[in-house]
Design a protein that fits this description.
Layout lengths: L3 H5 L3 E7 L18 H9 L1 E3 L2 E2 L5 H10 L3 H4 L15 H7 L3 E6 L15 E4 L11 H8 L30 H15 L6 E6 L37 H9 L8 H32 L5 E7 L18 H4 E2 L1 E4 L8 E3 L3 E2 L3 H8 L14 H5 L8 E5 L6 E5 L3 E6 L4 E6 L17 H17 L6 E2 L2 E2 L41
Parallel strand pairs: 1-6, 1-7, 2-10, 3-11, 4-5, 4-6
Antiparallel strand pairs: 2-9, 3-8, 7-9, 12-13, 13-14, 14-15, 16-17
Length: 504
């Protein structure tokens, strides 16, 4: 039976957004170790953009560029503490203004205030470091179910950030299941009177890697491949990698079995998300809305996961900068196609607005419609990425085959030929054979930044040089706590004479 939306041909839009999911974590796209049958289905029935990049390999600026369709050098959001723009139309706002029922479920990571709507008509919040129970619907749900004794509903961070752990919650109340439940609930209650834009946003597989039981045993460490650690790995990493390894308690030696256990738990988190996607697709099918809905699956950035003996994000290497990008919409996207042209999260907004039939796009968008990329209308593309700026700036430009990177705190350039060196094991910045394409991509990146009047990164068609930076020798320097302040006052629950160190 056709729905009201199908009769009037107004498409719905469903955006699946994961957190910290690498671009190489889908079985259908070549990962033989992971089980992702529902992501595989999206690949088989739609398009897989195999060179999709984050505009900034860290949560807030990557998401900001998705919401506003602009690169960080236009939004001014370069790191997690930077505010998102208040004077630009968001993707959600434009859709709301054009008759869509816009709803957000899960993590949005809006700054400066997590509880903002940013153009959504409504939200059901789930943030891993919430400001209060009153501002987070998932925490309210846990409190109402009697889980006030759970201090870390998303897993224990700080020293345990990269220690694989079993969730303190059963699968039925796990944060990933809650997003799946709320998404299916929204779809079942949708009356079809107007099209919907639904963003279903999962906190996982962001660390801590804490799947619920029995999902934690879906993969075993001995079956996991070892991390990609080339012999010359130190030539490929930057100050940001070394800094991140330190404050995530990961720079005092490598335990290869621990790294493989991390991968097993990380994959479990992704498979549990995949299970939710399957539930959601089934509801859409039963509603008769599946083929009338653009479905996009992507993530804000990837995860090093031990590659180059590094952990976290904040790097332009593919492990952290490349993300999955799947799009399914029969009639506009052929089934089963693979696209090697580079795309970016900034392309999500123009694709969504194109789907909604909005002709007057906001001025200044950097992205382009994925439909045009899939149809081969857009070729020889370049995409950009930036983390921080000034003395801490890290910059990238990527084409179909090549990638140029500059790290300001290292005063060092990197160049990779991804067509020959898929695992990015050789920095070719000094290789004479590549001098022309190297120089051309460097000039293009600097030119783009210069046009945005970036006065602290580039000047006179070159990088501004700052003092080189390195990590202090003291292994305790830069270590930090990043704990949830959840449930009742934690310190009051501890016997007198003891104290708890919290960071919020």
């Amino acid at each position: 039976m056709k729905s009201k939306n199908q009769k009037c041909k107004i498409p719905n839009i469903l955006l699946f957004f994961t957190d910290q999911q690498r671009g190489d974590t889908i079985h259908e796209l070549g990962n033989a170790y992971i089980q992702t049958p529902n992501m595989d289905r999206l690949c088989q029935e739609g398009a897989a953009f195999e060179r999709a990049y984050s505009p900034s390999p860290v949560c807030v600026p990557g998401r900001c560029s998705t919401y506003y369709g602009r690169y960080p050098f236009k939004t001014g959001c370069y790191d997690n503490c930077d505010p998102m723009p208040g004077n630009l139309p968001s993707m959600m706002q434009v859709l709301s203004n054009n008759g869509y029922r816009t709803h957000g479920i899960g993590k949005m990571h809006f700054t400066p205030y997590l509880h903002e709507l940013r153009g959504f008509i409504s939200r059901e919040r789930q943030e891993e470091l919430p400001g209060s129970v009153e501002e987070d619907e998932y925490l309210k749900y846990l409190w109402n179910k009697g889980y006030r004794h759970i201090f870390d509903p998303h897993g224990q961070r700080s020293e345990m950030y990269y220690i694989p752990q079993i969730s303190q919650l059963p699968a039925k109340d796990h944060p990933t299941q809650w997003v799946g439940d709320k998404t299916t609930e929204f779809l079942r209650e949708h009356d079809g009177s107007r099209p919907f834009f639904l963003m279903s946003s999962f906190i996982h597989p962001h660390p801590p890697f804490s799947p619920p039981t029995p999902w934690n045993k879906l993969y075993r460490a001995k079956d996991m491949p070892h991390a990609n650690v080339p012999e010359n790995y130190k030539e490929c990493i930057t100050y940001a990698n070394r800094f991140q390894n330190r404050y995530k308690y990961r720079d005092q030696g490598i335990d290869k079995n621990l790294v493989r256990t991390q991968k097993a738990f990380y994959y479990s988190c992704i498979s549990f998300i995949d299970y939710q996607i399957g539930r959601i697709l089934s509801v859409l099918e039963n509603m008769g809305e599946l083929d009338n809905t653009l479905i996009i699956l992507t993530s804000d950035h990837g995860e090093m996961l031990g590659d180059y003996n590094c952990f976290g994000k904040r790097t332009m290497l593919d492990a952290a900068a490349r993300v999955p990008m799947l799009a399914r919409f029969p009639g506009r996207i052929p089934a089963g196609i693979r696209i090697g042209e580079p795309v970016s999260l900034v392309d999500v907004m123009p694709t969504v607005l194109d789907t909604a039939g909005i002709k007057n796009m906001p001025e200044g968008l950097d992205g382009e419609s994925l439909y045009d990329v899939a149809e081969g209308k857009l070729t020889d593309r370049y995409v950009y990425s930036q983390f921080q700026n000034g003395s801490l700036g890290l910059y990238m430009i990527a084409s179909r085959n090549y990638k140029y990177i500059y790290s300001t705190p290292d005063d060092k350039e990197y160049f990779f030929d991804n067509s020959k060196d898929e695992n990015e094991t050789m920095n070719l910045s000094s290789n004479y054979e590549y001098k022309d394409i190297f120089s051309q991509m460097k000039r293009r990146l600097i030119s783009v930044l210069g046009k945005c009047k970036d006065g602290i990164s580039v000047r006179d068609n070159d990088w501004i040089r700052y003092d080189r930076m390195d990590i202090p020798l003291d292994p305790d320097e830069y270590l930090l706590f990043q704990d949830n302040c959840f449930a009742n006052d934690l310190e009051s629950q501890i016997s007198s004479g003891y104290s708890i160190k919290l960071f919020s």
